[in-house]
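Appendix B. Raw example, untouched.
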Amino acid sequence: MKIAQIFNSKIAYSLIALLLTVFLFVYVNSEHLSGNDDQSQVSTSLMKNTRASVKKVPKLNYDTDKYYVSGIPQNVKVSLNGPSALVKAAENTENFQVTADLNGLKPGTHTVKLKTSGLSSEISARTEPEKIKIKISKKGQASFPVQVRYDSNKIAKGYAAGVANASRQTVKVTGAQSDIKKVESIVADVGLGDDSKKSVSKNVLLRAIDSDGKQLDVTISPSTTRVNVPIYLASSHKKVSVNLVSRGSGVDGKKYSFSTDTKTVTLTGTKEALKKIDKLDVPVDLSGINSDEDRTISLVSNRSGVTSVSPESLQVHISVKNNGGDSGSNKNNSASSSASATTSGGNTSAEQPAGDSSTDQNESGNTASQQPESSDESSSSNEDSSEESDSASSSTQSSSESQKTNNAA
């Protein structure tokens, strides 16, 4: 009874209220102190120095209308050191630049120091490399056609590639004047998988190469093009004539005649490709040949869409004579061959269809006009003219005899 009276008294309620107040006070102050510790830790973390690395494309200041600069690296590494918040912001936004001032430098090779700009003064920055070697040249510009290249050996047997094409036919090339003059071609190299049977279409990076196939340090615009290489099943066949073509310079003072018994060959390829082919050019290299010889020449076709040539080779007989030799012997030589052509030493090329009459070229390297096949007609006309002259003389003789008879009478 006494205990119940105590809990129901005002003193008991007052004690309970006091205890709750003290508990709430302690709880609130502990949370406040904990919050201050976290804020202090965050503030300390933001003010603490940290490091970061960023890759940047260097920007060089020079007269871009007059000069072209080569040797510029694609990017340089920038090491940042400073307050964590500032370094993090610079790393995320990359709102600073790496520059080099080339104004006042003359054409030639120079080593210049890279500098950073746009960073907070509390951040220290260092570039790697600190200096770059560049070459300043007078600017040149020209347009070039795009040449598509691929490895035909990657195409599956029995298949052939059609005419490869690029979405850009010509591109603009900018660089040093000396390099622009060296540009041999702009190539788009297409990588084909082994035993390719399907057409390939892809974006290809363009390259400028010189006559030795070396890549030149120039800027191509646009730098890429979309290339399509059509690949078809090659099952069509076509017979075409053999066309002997001289290649290389023969020995000066020599006249060459070459012949073969193979009149036609069979090409295998796509229908579209074979429609455009009527003959197969067979080059005969005359370089350094001083005497008669027989040579076996492999038959290949560089025409797109042609997969094989049958037979794979042919035999060519090369006859060598001194210029100004017995022409009758040359005529007999040509007449006895089924496909022949004649050329003189010093020529760079001569083209003669198989089975045509022999042609001569002078020593200066100019191709002589082909002898027309109407030589028989001219000889026939000569015979006709001689027959006419004989008949004329016969008529004259007859008239003179009749005149004598009249006089005798």
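End of appendix B.
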